[in-house]
Amino acid sequence: MAMSTADLQSSASAVLEPMGTEVFDVESGRALMDHMLNGLAYCRMIFRDGEPSDFIYLYTNPAFERLTGLKQVIGHRVTEVVPGIRESDSRLFEVYGRVAKGAPPEQLEIFVDSLGHWFSLSVYSPQPEHFLAVFDVISQRKQAEQALSLAYERLALAQRAAMAGSWDWDMVAGQLYWSDELFRLFGLDAQKDTATFDTWRHLLHPEDRARAEERVCQAIRTQSPLENEYRIVLSSGDIRWIRACGDTLYDDRGTPRRMVGICLDITSSKNREIALSESEACYRMLAENSHDWVWAIDLAGRLTYSNRRGAEVLGYAEEDFAKRDPVDLLHPEDVPLYRGTLARAIAEKRGWKNVDFRWRQSDGQYRVLESTASPLLEGNGELCGFQGMDRDITARKQAEIQVWQEANYDHLTGLPNRRLLYDRLRQEVRKSRRAGNSVAVLFIDLDRFKDVNDTLGHEVGDALLKQAAHRLTDCVRRTDTVARLGGDEFTILLSELDGAEYAERVAQQLVRAFSEPFTLGEEQAYVTVSIGITLYPEDTVDAEQLLKNADQAMYSAKQRGRNCYQYFTPALQEAVLERVRLARELRGALDKGEFALSYQPIVELATGRIRKAEALIRWKHPELGIIGPSKFIPIAEETGLISDIGDWVFRVAVQQVVRWRSEFDDQFQVSIKKSPVQFRNRQSGYRAWFDHLEELGLPGGCLIIEITEALLFDAGISRTEHLQAFRAAGVQMAIDDFGSGYSALSNLKKFDVNYLKIDRAFIGGLASDSEERVLCEAIIAMAHKLGLQVIAKGVETPEQRDLLQTAGCDYGQGYLFARPVPADEFESLLQAGR
Questions:
Q1: CA distance 81 to 262
Q2: Is the pLDDT of residue 834 over 80?
Q3: Which of 26, 395, 409, 676 has its C-alpha lying 20 to 30 A from 285's C-alpha?
Q4: Contact 165, 184 (CB under 8 A)
């Protein structure tokens, strides 16, 4: 192994002595030098202005190359071989200069930055202007020294930051060592005072002296760690609490040799602990004599303390009550409130105030307790739980509920009264204004109730009113409000409506419900209803005016002969009558052959060819003329006729595909819309569609099914089965009016959609500098990334077509190409295109 720095001089002597020092002969000592483990470099100095400025290597041994990594340096200057050495340590040249002038050999340590090493050098001058350097790499030793110095610095800083000092007791030598921080902790000066046991004993509080000394002896005797807390009295008279921790080192025979440890200043935490203990004792004394339930819980909500009042209030034995989880005693509806309150309190490190919880008594009944709590903190300030007080407010709550019930509910029927109705109506109007939906108010009067009341008596009349209230509530949803305004007048509030259809169904159901007789003891009475209907916002945006409108409509119903309903707005009433007529006549339209299909071309933008067509149904009403699908399809969906109509559309459309594929384009496709209602029945006849395609010799790919985004977004079990069945049969799928609904992008690949049809709302405003252009380009790019093709609806101008084609849109559909036309006219378009 290489020699240490202390041995370098003797190494040099071993080289020089055999050769003499007057003339240094490299060749005579080469065998010895080549086998040395220390590096050797024999150099000739170069002077400038009488001072050494550089030197040239004349000889280096193998250890030189191994230690420095420098090779083939003979004949080269040192600054040429080791750039920057003069900047690294000019002392090297200073030493060479002194040795050259006859000074004795010198040793020095330098760091050569360009080599990245520390070197220990012994420099000799065997002959004028020549130098022999014996050296070794000491980088590891220097790094260890620096690390040790840094560790000492960090230890001192850590002790000061932690207010902790270390000590070391050499039992054999009888010496005691204290760190600087321990002197400061004891209020002493490390430069003036000495570390002795007498010094330590003198500092100990008289009451703690014997116990502290005994703890040290006990730790040594039992060979256990030292753990001790005691007080010291400073020269100023101040008292500090000290925690001492240490361990004893023993020799092989079990004889104690040394004890080392630390002392920490715990005065602040000890004072808090004493103060907390005193306050807890006072708190417990007050808690046990309180008329309220005083408790403490941990962060998991488990009871850690409860005074006897908690068990008394709820009727449990104290031992049983203390073991229960509070969540098990809470009313199920209050458990989320309790957990949420506790979670917020933990997150914010604060308590809560005046929160009401219902607690189950031992007899199964519930009592209402008003809870207030504050946080419990550990000595280090960390939250560890909560303490609080619950007050029994059951009697007060019952009184409040009774007063509120009397103020807001009808005492006879238990229904909301006029006051509560007005309050709910105002709330629903505000909600509907924000949501953009409708509210309906039905004003109901019992026909001929006065006759029953006068002939059979008020008690029978009251019984009839109660039964009438039950019939009214049975005809509406749980979220709707049925109220009694007084006498025989009732009001129903229907909220969150999309139109008048639900209100009309409720009115019809009410008329049917009140056509049944009322059994009143031994008597039977027939009482019908007259109903007035008004809508928000169609009729008015004022809540109070809605009730007035419904009242007027109710009187109009009475004038029509009672036992019916009447809309407030004549125009709406007319529309309802027309809807009833269409629903009635729609049932026979299919059998009478009143439906027809029109076809609108879908053009391939790149070639201008008609590659597809959308089949659009029309109702040729014998009196009203052509009726569009937007007017009668919703009625067909409500009445259940949509499935039969959808089957008819399919059969007629695919029959045309057979002809157009054989005569014009064997890849021609027809697109038909499919209503969400057609997907509801899991036993739907869609399988018959596949059989029919097989009979006609058509592949499933001849057909494109158009569905809405909403259907794709909320695909239930039956809908999913339908969609998967169509995909399995090869039928392609398009999302109609894309961008106007839910944009269920995650489902586009799940259900293997083929086409996106951009909603016409994006196409109508399409221009070179429009926002719609950016949106269309984004939709097209996204669709292509997902492997889908894009059809733009509502294309009406050449500019729109050109912009879409530039954006990479695949197909276009709109009046620019053609309006929907009958099959024979569509064939002419195909013929012209061919």
A1: 53
A2: no
A3: 395
A4: yes
Place of tokens 């006029």: 418
Q: How far is CA 342 from CA 375, 380, 415, 612, in A?
A: 11, 21, 37, 63
Measured between alpha carbons, how far is 165 from 186 in angstroms, rounded to an integer? 9
Separation CA 511–CA 13 (nearest Å): 128
Specify whether the CB–CB gap between 587 and 641 falls below 8 A.
yes
Q: Is the pLDDT of residue 1 over 50?
A: no
- The mean predicted confidence, pLDDT, of the chain is 84
* Residue 494 near residue 447 (C-beta atoms within 8 A): no
Query: What letters, b where the CB count within 10 A reaches 16 and e where it falls short, cover 143-172?
Result: eeeeeeeeeeeeeeeebeeebbbbbebeee
Residue 135 confidence (pLDDT): 79
CA atoms within 13 A on the CB side of 344: 10
Nearest partner of 674 among 660, 657, 653, 656, judged by Cα: 653
Residue 487 predicted with pLDDT over 80: yes
CA distance 668 to 746: 29
Most confident segment among 20-29, 136-145, 295-304: 295-304
| Cα–Cα distance measured from residue 211 to residue 244, given in angstroms and rounded to the nearest whole number | 13
Name which of 769, 774, 743 is nearest 756 in CA terms.
743
pLDDT of residue 814: 94
The amino acid that residue 162 corresponds to is A
List CB contacts of 748: < 8 A, sequence separation 6 or more: 712, 735, 756, 786, 788
Decide: 243 and 212 in contact? Cβ < 8 Å: no
Q: For residues 215 and 228, is the Cβ–Cβ distance under 8 A?
A: yes
Residues contacting residue 269 through CB under 8 Å, at least 6 positions apart: 379, 380
Tell me the DSSP string of 328-369: HHB-GGGHHHHHHHHHHHHHHT--EEEEEEEEE-TTS-EEEE
Residues in the chain: 834
Of the chain, the percentage scoring pLDDT greater than 70 comes to: 87
pTM (predicted TM-score): 0.42
- Cβ-Cβ contacts under 8 Å for 552 (sequence gap 6 or more): 532, 568
Closest CA relative to residue 799, chosen from 816, 776, 820: 816
